[in-house]
Amino acid sequence: MNRTLKICCIAMLSALSVVANFCTIPLPGNNAVSFTLAVCFFTGIYFGALPAALVGFVGDLIAHLIHPLGDYNWFLALSVTLYGVVCAIIYRLKMHRLLALCISVIICYIVCLYGLNSFGLWLQYCVGVRPSPLGLWDFFSGNYDGVTKTFWLYLAGRAPMSAVNIAVNAVIVAALQESRTIARLIARIREKKPVAESEQHSN
User: Does residue 198 belong to any structural domain of this protein?
Assistant: First the structure.
C-alpha cells in the first residue's frame, strides 16, 4: 500500500471534513443537512475505521474551535466519530457495496444521527445542561421534572429531517462509489510497490 499517498488523502479528507462542517445547511427544529456524514462514510469505506474516526473527530473539533456555536457537544462529536467506523466494519463483510451502504446508513441513522446526535441536542437546548459527560452526570443527579419537551417527543420531531440528512449523504457516497476516477485513485493507493529486480533474483 502506498502509505504516503494514503496519509495525504486522509489529511485532505480531514480538511474537507472541516469545510463540510461550515457548509452545513440549517433546517427547522435544530436540524441540518451536514455533508460531514458523506466525508466520514467515504473515509470509513476506503481507508478503514481508525482514519474515519480521526477524520470525523478532527473535522468536528477544528470547526468548533474556529467558529463555536455554544458549548462543545460531546455527543455530536461521538456521533460523527462513529459514522465512518460503522461503514468500515460493515464494508468488511462480503456483500454488494450498495447493500453494505444501506446497512451502514440504517445503523448510523438509528445509533448516531437519531440517537446520540438527538440526545446531545436535547440536553443542550431542551434540558439546558452542558452536552458533556459532566452535564450528563448533572442531568441524572439533578431534578429536571420541569422540562417541557421529553426526549422521546424531541426525537419524534427530528426523525423526518434526520432521514433527509442521511439520505442526501448516502446518495453522494453511492455516486462516489460508481466514479471511475475514485476507483482509479483507490487502486493506486492500494497497489503495492513492485519488488526490485535484484531482490527477486536474490530470492
Answer: no
What's this model's pTM, rounded to 2 decimal places? 0.85
Outline where DSSP puts E strands in the chain: 25-27, 31-33
Q: In terms of residue numbers, what domain contains 187?
A: 3-192
Q: What CATH number does residue 16 fall under?
A: 1.10.1760.20
- pLDDT tens, per residue, the chain with 203 residues: 677 888 888 999 999 999 998 888 887 766 788 899 999 999 999 999 999 999 999 999 999 999 887 889 999 999 999 999 999 999 999 899 999 999 999 999 999 988 999 999 999 888 888 899 888 888 888 777 778 788 899 999 888 888 999 999 999 999 999 888 888 888 888 776 544 443 444 44
- Cα 103 to chain centroid, rounded: 15
CB 76 within 8 A of CB 117: yes
* Residue 60 lies inside a defined structural domain of this protein: yes
Residue 104 belongs to some domain of the structure: yes
Placement of cell 535484484 in the chain = 198
- Number of domains into which the chain is organized: 1
